[in-house]
C-alpha cells in the first residue's frame, strides 16, 4: 500500500515538474521572440528619424527579435491602419507618437484589448481632460519654454533691441493641437510678460502650425504680412521646425536682419549657426537619441522582466549657441 502511494506521489510530482518546465519553456520562447513597433507621426523631421533609430537599436540590443518602424505621415487614417496591422501581427509592445491626440483613447482601447504594452513618446496620450492615459517619455515643456524666453530677454536687453517697442513684435509659433506643446507656449508667454511688463500687449502674436517647418512658414508669413508696422520680430516656437519656418518667412519679407529667434530641439540649429547673419541666437538642445533609448529600454524591461513602466520620464535640455554647438554631438 505504501509503495502504491509513493508511486502516485512520484507521478504527480513528475507531472507538475513537466508542466512547470513546459510553461517556463514557453515563456522563455516568448521572450526571445519579442517584436515591438515604433509609430511616429512623421519621419520627415530629423528629430523623429534619430529617435526612431535609437529606439530600434536599443530594443534589438536588449533582445528584441524585430522592431517595426512606421511613418504615420501626419495622417490619422494611415496611423489607425498601421495600428490595426500591428495588432493583427500580435506585436508585444509599441512606442507611439500620434499624429493627432484625439486618437489617444482609441489607441489605448485597442492595445489594451490585445494586451499590447504602450509608451507615448514626445506627445502624451491623454483623455478629454488632458490626463495622461499611458506612460510618457518626453521633456519638461513648460520649464524649457521659460528658460529659452529668459535667455532671449537677456539678449534683447543686453543688445539694446527694445529701444522701439512700438515697432517690435513677439511671434509665438504654437501647436495647441498637441497638449505637450501648450505648456511650452504658456511658459514662453508668461515669462516674456513678467520680464517685460511694459511691452505692448497688442504687439504679441500667436501663430498656429502643426510642427512642420512648411506649415510654420505659411502661418508666420501671414502674421508678418498682416502687421507691416512691426519691423523687429522676436520669434519663439513649440519646436525648432517652427522657428526655422518663421525665419524663412522673415527672410522672404526682408526682416530677418533685425529679428531675434530661439528654438527648441537643436537639430537644425547647427545649420543656422553656420550662417553669417541668422536671427537664431540659441536653441534648447534635447537628445532625440536619449528619448528613443529610454522609451525602448522601459518597454523592453517591462516585457522581459515585468518591470513597471514609470508614468512619466522627462529628458533634460542643454542650451546651445553659435559659440558652443560644435562641442555637442549633433547628427
Under CATH at level 1, the class of the largest domain stands as Alpha Beta
* CATH architecture assignment name of the largest domain: 3-Layer(aba) Sandwich
CATH homologous superfamily classification of the largest domain: Response regulator
Q: SS-based structural class?
A: alpha/beta
Order of helices and strands: HEHEHEHEEHEHEHEHEHEHEE
Which residues sit in consecutive blocks of at least 5 with pLDDT less than 50? 7-13, 16-29
- Main sheet specs: 6 strands, parallel
Strand order of the largest sheet: 2-1-3-4-5-11
DSSP summary: helix tally: 10
Cα end-to-end separation = 78 Å
Relative strand content: 15-25%
In total, how many domains does the architecture comprise? 2
Mean pLDDT: 89
**Rg, Cα atoms, Å:** 25 Å
Which word captures the global form? elongated
Helix content: 40-55%
Please name the CATH topology of the largest domain: Rossmann fold
Question: How many distinct beta strands?
Answer: 12
Protein name: Arabinose ABC transporter substrate-binding protein
Keywords: Signal
Domain Periplasmic binding protein: 36-269
InterPro entries: AraF (IPR026266), Bact_Solute-Bind_Prot2 (IPR050555), Peripla_BP_I (IPR028082), SBP_2_dom (IPR025997)
Amino acid at each position: 500500500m505504501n509503495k502504491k502511494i509513493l508511486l502516485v506521489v512520484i507521478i504527480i510530482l513528475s507531472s507538475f515538474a513537466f508542466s512547470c518546465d513546459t510553461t517556463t519553456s514557453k515563456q522563455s520562447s516568448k521572450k526571445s521572440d519579442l517584436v515591438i513597433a515604433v509609430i511616429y507621426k512623421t519621419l520627415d523631421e530629423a528629430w523623429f528619424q534619430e529617435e526612431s533609430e535609437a529606439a530600434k537599436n536599443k530594443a534589438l540590443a536588449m533582445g528584441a527579435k524585430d522592431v517595426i518602424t512606421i511613418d504615420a505621415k501626419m495622417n490619422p487614417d494611415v496611423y489607425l491602419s498601421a495600428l490595426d496591422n500591428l495588432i493583427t501581427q500580435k506585436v508585444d509592445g509599441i512606442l507611439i507618437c500620434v499624429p493627432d491626440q484625439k486618437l489617444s483613447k482609441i489607441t489605448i482601447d485597442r492595445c489594451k484589448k490585445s494586451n499590447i504594452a504602450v509608451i507615448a513618446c514626445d506627445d502624451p496620450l491623454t483623455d478629454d481632460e488632458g490626463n495622461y492615459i499611458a506612460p510618457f517619455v518626453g521633456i519638461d515643456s513648460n520649464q524649457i519654454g521659460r528658460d529659452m524666453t529668459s535667455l532671449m530677454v537677456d539678449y534683447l536687453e543686453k543688445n539694446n533691441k527694445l529701444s522701439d517697442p512700438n515697432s517690435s513684435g513677439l511671434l509665438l509659433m504654437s501647436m495647441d493641437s498637441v497638449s505637450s506643446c501648450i505648456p511650452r507656449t504658456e511658459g514662453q508667454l508668461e515669462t516674456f510678460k513678467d520680464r517685460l511688463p511694459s511691452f505692448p500687449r497688442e504687439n504679441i502674436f500667436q501663430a498656429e502650425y502643426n510642427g512642420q517647418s512648411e506649415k510654420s512658414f505659411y502661418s508666420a508669413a501671414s502674421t508678418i504680412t498682416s502687421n507691416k508696422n512691426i519691423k523687429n520680430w522676436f520669434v519663439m516656437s513649440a519646436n525648432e521646425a517652427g522657428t526655422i519656418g518663421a525665419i524663412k518667412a522673415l527672410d522672404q519679407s526682408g526682416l530677418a536682419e533685425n529679428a531675434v529667434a530661439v528654438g527648441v530641439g537643436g537639430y537644425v540649429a547647427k545649420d543656422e549657426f553656420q550662417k553669417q547673419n541668422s536671427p537664431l541666437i540659441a536653441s534648447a538642445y534635447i537628445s532625440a537619441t536619449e528619448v528613443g533609448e529610454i522609451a525602448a529600454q522601459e518597454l523592453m524591461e517591462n516585457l522581459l522582466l515585468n518591470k513597471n513602466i514609470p508614468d512619466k520620464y522627462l529628458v533634460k535640455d542643454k542650451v546651445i549657441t553659435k559659440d558652443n554647438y560644435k562641442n555637442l554631438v549633433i547628427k
